[in-house]
Amino acid sequence: MTTHLTFAGMVARKHTFTLPLDYQQPNGETINVFARELVSPENQHKALPFIVFFQGGPGFGAVRPAANGGWIKRALQEFRVLLLDQRGTGLSSPVSSASLIHLSTTQQSQYLSHFRADNIIRDAEAIRQQLVGDEKWSILGQSFGGFCVLKYLNDAPQGLKEAYITGGIPSLTRSADEVYQATYQRVIAKNNDFFSRFSDAQGLIKAVAQHISEHDVKLATGEQLTVEMLQLLGINIGMEQGPESVYYLLEQALITTASGTIVNPLFLAHFCQMLDYNSNPIFALLHESIYCQNNASNWSAHRVRAQYPQFNYTSDKPFLFTGEMIYPWMFDQFSNLRPLKEAATTLAMKDDWPALYQQAVLAENTVPVAAAIYSEDMFVEMRYSLETAAKVGNLKYWLTSEYEHNGIRMDGEHILDRLITINRGENLR
What we know:
By secondary structure, this protein is of the alpha/beta class. The protein is built from 17 helices and eleven strands. The strands form two sheets. A nine-stranded mixed sheet has the order 1-2-3-5-4-6-7-10-11, sandwiched between helices. The radius of gyration is 22 Å and the shape is globular.
C-alpha cells in the first residue's frame, strides 16, 4: 500500500509492508512494517538509488521530517531516502502494554523476542526485494541504527552498495556487563562536566530530591515522582543541547506559593516529555538484549551499578544522574511498563539469544563503510568502537570530539557529507 504526500521541499510516499513476525515460520503470524520514502521535487521522476535510515533506540520510530534539512537535505541530492519504522515502532505494528494485554506473560516474551536487530534486517531485505528487486541500496544508521548496519553487513551484505554509521559501532564480543562498566564511567564524567558548567545545578537538583522525598508528588502521567526517576534525566546530558535542557528544567522545578513550596506543574509535564519509557516500551524491554549473544543480560545495568555506589543518592553526598540504563524497578514505577514486568523479567533471564555478529564474516567485508565515532560519546564507548573498527574489513572512520552522541540531529548535513566523501575516497572539502 502506498500514499503520496508533499512536504516543504520534499515529496513523500508512504509504504506499508506485511511481513512475517517470525521468519522461521514465514506462513505464520504477520506484522505491518511502515517506511516513508522521500525524494526532492526535482528528482521525483528520476530513478535514483535508495538510502535507508536506521533509527537509534531500540524502540523508536524513524524521524518525522517537517522540511528538507539536515542529513536528509544532503541525502536527497543523490538518493531517495527511506525512513524505516523498525518493527514495533512508529506505524510498524507498534508495541505497547495495550497491544500485548491479550497475551500471557510467556506469549508476550516470545512475541517480543522477535524484535531485535536480526529481524529488523530481515524486514529491510524483504522490503528491498519488493521495492527494487536485486538492486543494491545504501544504508545509514544512527546509534542503535549503527548496530543494525553492522548486523546488515554480517547477514546480508549482498543487498548493500555502501554503509554509513554515526555514533553507533558496537562491540562484537564484549558482554553487557563490560559495556555498562565503561558506560557508568562515561556517565560520571558527563555528570562532572554538567555540574561544573552549571554551578548552582547541584543545589537545585538536591532541593528537588529532598522535596519529593518528603512529599507525595505526582507526575503529569500519574506516577509518583521518585529520586530514581529524577536521576534518569541524565540520559539527556549526553546529547547535543541536552545539558542545557536539563538545567533549564531544574531552574523552574520548585516554586513558592501562598501555601508553601511546591513542584512546578510545568516541571512535572516537561519531565515526562524528556523520558521515553512510558511511550516507547521496547526501549526498556529490549535495550540490554542488543548486547546479548547466547547469554542473558540478567539486568546487567542494575547489577553493575553496585560497583559504582556514588550513584546511590543520599542527602549527604552529591547527586548524580544515571544514563542509558534500564533497571527492574522501572517496571514498578512507570505505569505503562507495569503490565509488562513479568515479560521484562523473562527477557532479562533469556539465555539463548542468537549470536549477532560473526567476526570472520565481518573481517572479510567488502561493502564500503564510513563511520563517525564521537570520542566524548556517553552512550557508545569509543574504545569498543575503535576495537570493532579494526576488525571490520573495508571500514573507514572519522574520530572527532566535535559532537555528542546525537550530532547528526544538529549538524547532519555536514556529517553525512563528510562520511560520503570518506567512503568514496574523495578529497575532503
